[in-house]
Design goal:
The structure holds 2 protein chains of 2 kinds.
Chain A: E1 2-6, H1 8-14, H2 16-28, E2 32-35, H3 55-68, E3 72-75, H4 78-90, H5 94-104, E4 116-119, H6 120-125, H7 128-134, E5 142-146, H8 149-152, H9 155-158, H10 168-175, E6 179-180, H11 199-212, E7 218-221, H12 224-232, H13 234-238, E8 247-250, H14 251-258
Parallel strand pairs in A: 1-2, 1-3, 3-4, 5-6, 5-7, 7-8
Helix pairs in contact in A: 1-2, 2-14, 3-4
Chain B: H1 12-16, H2 18-21, H3 27-32, H4 49-53, H5 60-68, H6 75-87, H7 95-104, H8 117-121
Classes of the chains: A alpha/beta, B mainly alpha.
Amino acid sequence: MRFAFYPGCLVLQRMPEYEAATRAVLRALGIELEIIQQAACCGSPVAESFTAEWVYLAVYNLALVERMGHGTVATVCGGCTNSLTRGACALQNADVRAEANRRLEPLGLSVTGQVEVKHLVRLLAEREDEVRARIVRPLSLRVALTNPCQVFRPGGVMKFDDPVEPQSLRRLVELTGAEVVEYGGEDECCGATLYLADPDLALAAGRRKLEATQEADFLLHGCGNCQLLLRRFQRLIVRDEPGLRRQSLLLPQLVGLAMGLPEEELGLREGTWR
Amino acid sequence: MNHPEDCLQCGNCVTVCPVEMAGGHAIVTFLADPDATGYSVWLCTSCWRCQESCPGEVDIHRLMMEQRRREQAPAGYRAAFESILACGLALEVAQEELDQVRAAWGLESVRLPPSGLVQTLLRGSGRPEGREK
């Protein structure tokens, strides 16, 4: 089985390990990803904050997927998943579709609106039995997860899992043998998107998570934005309080480890995750 | 910004907002109290929890985005939008650098968006709207 892959600018440019681990886990399940060539920004929240026409950025990416002949595009960040899904919804309106095709025509593209957008959590949740069958090395880790907000909300658009208290990520983590540490902030956003407007406030939001997850061995993320704020920017939060420090893993890294996949394929240096 | 008619001022949105939890004041502060000051429509994590919690089914996201287009954007947003206009991506990257990283990771090569793409797609907004008050 083959899907188109939209990494989004953050993962494309800053997190090759997320793409590598995603590909490794999906390959083990018989799924190959084909990256979209010349993909553009998904459109939100940045372009959407300046123009109502942002939706044509999302639509352009969906048109590229259609040209590739794929019916599904896989994503790994919450933000892109949300923008592209809202783009697909907008295309159900005939007027939007007609205007989209007028704008795509000079680019040699067209769009019908038939592409489904699926985040990695969803792709794995839809294959829970296959994932379970591939677990060969159950992990004895204590993990604190953050649900990638925009994969589940708004519920009427995303139409996957419970929009307020989603369970699919938790179930996937439990499949790996890892224990999910309850900390009450599982459905609180990491704050990453806030960084563009107010870095200090974004770090304050991240700090709440670090403080609340002291009992966990690892933070577990299913979005590049969470990983960016809580791992890459963690030093900006921790400063001279080493007790706040937390290690973190991306969902496909955790699942891949439990599947017995080689650490280097998952973007993990040997032993560093233990 | 007009206070939405369907808003019950119940404050549910304030209690679930991660910006408020972190000590900031977002659009939800205005929804709960139309006379409030000291909030910003730019302080949002895009988590959509307010919208999901709203008994009046107010489209808070849309309200927020429409207000943003009338205001001066913070520097971080302006820079990201300029990047989208210039190269099609919110984060700028050189093709050569991308090729090197992807080769080192054994990932299939990828081409960046064509130049002029965004101007074709966003016809009415080749430049940011509402940048100046």
